[in-house]
Amino acid sequence: MHDTLTAPPVAAASVILLRDGAAGLEVFLMRRADKSDVLGGNHVFPGGKIDAADAEPASAALLGVAPGTLPAALNENTLAPLEAAALFVGAARELFEEAGVLLATQPGGAAASAEQHRIATEALRAGTAFTELLRQQGLSLDRAALAAWSRWITPRMPSHAMTRRFDTRFLIAALPAGQHARHDDFETTDSAWLAPREALHGYWARTLLMMPPQIMTLAHLSRFGSVAEVFAAAARQPAPTIEPEPFDEDGVRVVCYPGDARHPLATRAMPGPTRLVLRGKRFEPERGFDALFD
Question: Disulfide engineering: 71 pairs with which of 79, 126, 130, 278, CB 3.0-4.6 Å?
Answer without folding.
Answer: 79
